[in-house]
Specification:
The complex is a heterodimer of chains A (297) and B (93). Chain A has a single domain, classed as 3-Layer(aba) Sandwich (Rossmann fold), CATH 3.40.50. Chain A has twelve helices and nine strands. Chain A has an eight-stranded mixed beta sheet with strand order 3-1-4-5-7-6-8-9, with helices on both faces. In chain A, helix 1 packs across helix 7 and helix 3 packs parallel to helix 5. The radius of gyration of chain A is 18 Å and the shape is globular. Chain B is of the alpha+beta class and 93 residues long. Chain B has a domain of 65 residues: Alpha-Beta Plaits. Classes of the chains: A alpha/beta (297), B alpha+beta (93). Chains A and B meet through helix 1, strand 2 and helix 9 of A and strand 1, helix 1 and helix 2 of B. Strand 2 of chain A pairs parallel with strand 1 of chain B, so a sheet runs across the interface. The complex binds thiamine diphosphate (TPP) and iron/sulfur cluster (SF4) (3 copies).
Chain lengths: 297, 93
Amino acid sequence: MASIKNFPKEEYVLKGHAACPGCPITIALRTALKALGNDVTLIVPASCSAVVQSLVPKTSFNVPVLNIAFAASASAASGVAAALKRLGKKTIPVVWAGDGGSYDIGIQALSGALERREDFIYVCYNNQMYSNTGIQRSGATPYGAWTTTTWTGKKEMQKELAEIVMAHHIPYVATASIAYLDDLYEKMKKAKEMEGPRYIEIFSPCPPGWRFDMSKTVEIARLAVQTGSWVLYEAINGKIEFTSYSKMLLKGRERKPIEDWLRMQGRFRHLTEEDIKRIKEAIDEKWKYYMQIYNKD
Amino acid sequence: MMETAISYPTEGGMGKTGTWRIFRPVVDNSKCINCRICWVYCPDAAIKMLMDMPENEGKDIKGIEIDYDYCKGCGICANECPVKAIKMEREEK
Ligand SMILES: Cc1ncc(C[n+]2csc(CCOP(=O)(O)OP(=O)(O)O)c2C)c(N)n1
Ligand code: SF4
Ligand code: SF4
Ligand code: SF4
């Protein structure tokens, strides 16, 4: 198991970038690039990550980046992969996209590239809304959450993109969190050594978007896993294994109360008892299913 | 033909982002246990472990150095430090 004590010291996210204080994106990207190294080409669609890089002619990302139109990430990565192959290079194309650009707007290009078994890594950092344009709902926004387009709370449940991706039968699918960076590092390393399409989704709480104090980004990410609201797993050739803290939950450790997590975030402030009950039931249901299907060895 | 805009890697792409700070993290290195937690979570890569610095190679040294030119004062390091070695103090301006 990787430990933060052994992470490479190289930094590929440079100081003085444009992210808000406490941003989850640069936490995730720092560790991801420590695992992948700098022989990558990032493909970044319209998103906070496009802005975080800073302004032309400067960039704060010390690896090559192709900034591309919103819907086009996985198609662009397919082209980059083909070009690199033709040049005989080992460089890995890595899409770095938000949930808006993955769950909603980029899903057609993503599905196509997965089905064509393109040789690339797709990373979705999931901050559960469109943050760059001022907090609009996405397909990843959870039930009840306030956004500027769901100002009485979202009425629908989120979908599970990692499960949709798994239906493409690709070599590697993993979920991760900015709170569990040793787990994220390990998964990035595994993905790096494989071929074909690989998908990693990173849970990424956003202070201005979720309405919490910027010092709590990691704490909220951790609590999401400990309450069972976000789940850490990986699927190698379709075989699902829970990892890190989620594995302990699967083995019977008690989940922390979801109220603790909801209470820390302004986006859930208006929830009624009824709403909280509904959220709780959905998590219980989900874990009952996990216990039945995956808790055997 | 339209030209593609190209950017080059530069520290301080947005200038000295330390000026954004309202609270300043202040470390008491005598409490530090070299766990690297603040180092790994800092969104701004503004923390260096003293033991990683070339001049400290081979020394038994504990502690961190914060780059106040770029630290944005988010407070994640103080929130996550397991031994409470980092405190947030209001900037005097
Ligand atoms: C085709 C198109 N539609 C809309 C936009 C405006 N836009 C830019 S970034 C963004 C939000 C991206 O959200 P997400 O993918 O979740 O990434 P995040 O901002 O959260 O990092 C939107 C709507 C655009 N650039 N292009
Ligand atoms: S809005 Fe959220 S995701 Fe976007 S840069 Fe700010 S903290 Fe990061
Ligand atoms: S306050 Fe935030 S930006 Fe400053 S050193 Fe701590 S974690 Fe890094
Ligand atoms: S988190 Fe605290 S104990 Fe750990 S390295 Fe940082 S200052 Fe030292």
